[in-house]
Amino acid sequence: MKTSIATVSISGSFTEKLDAIAAAGFDGIEIFEQDFLASDHAPQEVGRMVRDAGLEITLFQPFRDFEGLPEPHRARAFARAERKFELMNELGTDLILMCSSVHPQALGGIDRMAEDFAELGDLAREHGVRVGFEALCWGRHVNDHRDAWEVVRRADHPNVGLILDSFHTLGRRIDPASIRSIPGDRIFFVQLADAPAIDMDLLYWSRHFRNMPGEGDLDITSFLRAVMATGYDGPLSLEIFNDQFRAGLPRLVAQDGHRSLIDAVDRVRRTEPALPLDLPAFPAPQPVQRIEFIEFASSADDAPALETLLESMGFAAAGRHVSKPVTLWRQGGANILVNKDSQGFANSSYLAHGTTVSEIALMMTDAQAGFDRATALLARPHPQASREGELSIPAIRGVGGSMIRFLDAGTDLGRIWDIDFTTQPAPDGAGLTGFDHLAQTMAYDEMLSWALFYSSIFDAQKAPMVDVADPSGLVRSQAMQSGGLRVTLNGAEARGTLAGRFIEDSFGSSVQHIALSTDDIFATADAMAARDFPVLQIGANYYGDVQARFGLSSELVGRMQAANILYDEDESGHFFQFYSNTQTGGFFFEIVQRGAGYQGYGAPNAPFRIGAQKRGARPAAVPRR
Ligand SMILES: O=C(O)c1ccc(O)c(O)c1
Ligand SMILES: [Mg+2]
């Protein structure tokens, strides 16, 4: 599989783009004419720079408003085309993209357009180049790949072929299965782009909101299955017009692009195994059974505050690491490690962020397969030296430089508590049974990237994005789930929001809250209150509203209010939740009772939670006399 990306997809100067694209492992680039014109390099030099970077120019584009013109525009269009063919020879590429005309004078008529392309094909042949015709979904006469194909078919010229672009097909809701009947060798090039489902003008949507395959809502898998079923074996190329990416970090965006292509082809392989796909073998996503443990990096000075909080929640010290200053705090199926090491990875995390979640360990069917898949999808491995007799646990880097470890029950990795720890039974706690979800706070710009990380590596499913109103600005929240792994990604743009302040205070993205589950939230709240748990106080206004909204009994609402418990429900279940006060640095805990089938995270309550947290954080008002 040859991978490629258009220079418009990422930010930077021409050289910065080239470096980033080469570093991300692509085979080629589409040169967007504007990027070439804006650069200071002669065409031969551009060609040489591309080849020196180990890349090839897969396409030169776009050529606009060619077909269907009356004279004298028609002759002008041919002369323009000839100039570009000469330029392509200098650049060292043989394929140009012609997008369907939006020219006000363009005339319709499939045969007229086919004749234009047949004649252009002769000119292209003289220059040793090929022409690909793409239907822009807002094209004046051609805006559907089926019509573009009919033009190409009737032109019947070996130097004229079809270019497909997933955005134009799927954005217009054209059934991609219609591609299957096109001969693969008549398709000269394939561009891939996804986009979020937003109802808006097609051109504006395409020029500003495209994103990487898997980051949006279009059915890229069906499109790509149809393309591969034709026998097409040319490049798969990303053409992503996106305002955020244009301003993003070139290397990060390029790497996300390469990850998205590998994932897109892998999805095709898993849904239609009979197709011949030239992608190295790697394991399918491993279902995550549960979060086995979460580790905090802290210090001898800071850890006691965290440990006091854990005790107030009913956790008990239940073990120690055999060689490191790491304590296991346990309750039910929830294992929390507190690491006070003054060297190594945990200490670096602590120095960078303050007390912070530095590791998340996932129990899955096959840890090595999970790790192999992650690295095939370009996750950064985190090799760690282990001592004699201790486990060597496969790990990758996740959000904010934290570590994700892979465990399974089928190997010694499943015996981590016996091998790497000395443990004792934990006394009964407050009824917590395990982890419900993790909330990771990040800059809004990072959200698509981390969502792609979880969806590609773990096949995590995305819930619809929700907007959470913080008094100081909007926070976007994207929930994702893969089996027992539930995460919410919270993207903050405004610095004054609780999430924005957290990013500042903890110097970058990390876990802002951990939600633990209970089967009886009222009993758990009582047991924790008896242990002096610092519960987040919810105002009375909330309870009046929630009672009216859901028709709850006064008796239930009274009990909720006494324990500062919030409520939500969906078609299939109830949901109760309460919170701790925010800790130094902005971290907090949540306790939830998830009724069978409830899929959400209590998002409608988030504004009230945030209001309460901000009241709690405000310095006490001086009483007036
Ligand atoms: O937005 C455009 O004009 C444009 C140009 C070239 C393409 O390949 C495309 O998909 C869109
Ligand atoms: Mg295109």
TrEMBL record:
<dbReference type="InterPro" id="IPR004360">
    <property type="entry name" value="Glyas_Fos-R_dOase_dom"/>
</dbReference>
<feature type="binding site">
    <location>
        <position position="134"/>
    </location>
    <ligand>
        <name>a divalent metal cation</name>
    </ligand>
</feature>
<comment type="pathway">
    <text>Aromatic compound metabolism; 3,4-dihydroxybenzoate biosynthesis.</text>
</comment>
<dbReference type="Pfam" id="PF01261">
    <property type="entry name" value="AP_endonuc_2"/>
</dbReference>
<dbReference type="GO" id="GO:0046872">
    <property type="term" value="F:metal ion binding"/>
</dbReference>
<dbReference type="GO" id="GO:0046565">
    <property type="term" value="F:3-dehydroshikimate dehydratase activity"/>
</dbReference>
<feature type="binding site">
    <location>
        <position position="239"/>
    </location>
    <ligand>
        <name>a divalent metal cation</name>
    </ligand>
</feature>
<feature type="binding site">
    <location>
        <position position="590"/>
    </location>
    <ligand>
        <name>Mg(2+)</name>
    </ligand>
</feature>
<dbReference type="InterPro" id="IPR050312">
    <property type="entry name" value="IolE/XylAMocC-like"/>
</dbReference>
<feature type="domain" description="VOC">
    <location>
        <begin position="434"/>
        <end position="581"/>
    </location>
</feature>
<comment type="function">
    <text>Catalyzes the conversion of 3-dehydroshikimate to protocatechuate (3,4-dihydroxybenzoate), a common intermediate of quinate and shikimate degradation pathways.</text>
</comment>
<protein>
    <recommendedName>
        <fullName>3-dehydroshikimate dehydratase</fullName>
        <ecNumber>4.2.1.118</ecNumber>
    </recommendedName>
</protein>
<dbReference type="InterPro" id="IPR013022">
    <property type="entry name" value="Xyl_isomerase-like_TIM-brl"/>
</dbReference>
<dbReference type="Pfam" id="PF00903">
    <property type="entry name" value="Glyoxalase"/>
</dbReference>
<dbReference type="InterPro" id="IPR037523">
    <property type="entry name" value="VOC_core"/>
</dbReference>
<feature type="binding site">
    <location>
        <position position="513"/>
    </location>
    <ligand>
        <name>Mg(2+)</name>
    </ligand>
</feature>
<dbReference type="Pfam" id="PF14696">
    <property type="entry name" value="Glyoxalase_5"/>
</dbReference>
<comment type="similarity">
    <text>Belongs to the bacterial two-domain DSD family.</text>
</comment>
<dbReference type="InterPro" id="IPR029068">
    <property type="entry name" value="Glyas_Bleomycin-R_OHBP_Dase"/>
</dbReference>
<feature type="binding site">
    <location>
        <position position="165"/>
    </location>
    <ligand>
        <name>a divalent metal cation</name>
    </ligand>
</feature>
<keyword id="KW-0479">Metal-binding</keyword>
<dbReference type="InterPro" id="IPR043700">
    <property type="entry name" value="DSD"/>
</dbReference>
<feature type="binding site">
    <location>
        <position position="437"/>
    </location>
    <ligand>
        <name>Mg(2+)</name>
    </ligand>
</feature>
<dbReference type="GO" id="GO:0046279">
    <property type="term" value="P:3,4-dihydroxybenzoate biosynthetic process"/>
</dbReference>
<keyword id="KW-0456">Lyase</keyword>
<dbReference type="InterPro" id="IPR036237">
    <property type="entry name" value="Xyl_isomerase-like_sf"/>
</dbReference>
<feature type="binding site">
    <location>
        <position position="191"/>
    </location>
    <ligand>
        <name>a divalent metal cation</name>
    </ligand>
</feature>
